[in-house]
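Side project, low priority. Logging it here so it doesn't get lost.
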Amino acid sequence: MPSHASETSLYPAVKTFLEGQGFTVKGEVRGCDIVAVRDAEPPRLIICELKLGLSLELLLQGVERMRSADEVWLAVAATRRGRDRDSRAHRLCRMLGFGLLAVTPAKARVEVLVEPTPYQPRRNAPERKRILREHAVRRGDPNSGGSTRQPIMTAYRQQALDCAEAMRDGPKRPRDLRPTAPDAGGIMLRNVYGWFERVERGCYGLTDAGRSALERWRDGKAAT
C-alpha cells in the first residue's frame, strides 16, 4: 500500500463485498468502521473493522465488537508476504471467531482469508505427549522462561551431562551409567554434542568437548 493510504481506501471494496451478500452497509456507526445489517427477525448484524495491517490493536477492536455483533470481520490491505498471509494469524482469527479479509483497493478486490465460524483447534497429540514427557523428566527448573540467546537445559542434556560427569575418571560402558542416565546407550551412540568417543567396543570415553561442557554447565546452567 502507498505510504499515504488510509483505512478509508478499503471501504468501497468491503462495502461492495458485503452488499453482495444481501447486507445494507453503512460506515462509521457508533464508532464501528462498517456496520452491515441483513433484514431478518432478529436482524443479522455484522461489524467490520478496517486497518492497513493486521495488528494487536485491530484484534482488540474485534474482541470488543463481539459483544454486539453476530459476526465480526477484520479487513486489512492485501500483501504478498505480510501478516495477513501468516497461517498463525489465520489460526488466531479462527480461535477468536473473526473473519479476515485481504483487500486490494486499486482492483476493488476482496479475498476471504478466514471465515467467521466457531473454531476448535485440532490437538497435536504427539507434540502434547512430548511436552508432557519433557516436563516430567527434566530435573528441577534450570531455565528462565523467555530465554532466547543461550542453550536450553533439556532432560536429554541433563542425562548427557550425567554421563560426562561419570566419565571424568575414565571410560565407562553404557550399562554402568543407566542408574543415573536411563538413555545412556542412545546418548553414547548418537553423540549429539560430540562429548563422547568410543575407545573400544561397548566402551566410551570423554572428549575435550565433553570436559569443556562439564565446566560450562557446572551449575546446571550455561555459563556466559
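Brief comment: The helical segments are 11-19, 56-65, 87-96, 125-137, 155-166, 174-177, 184-190, 208-216.
Revisit when time allows.
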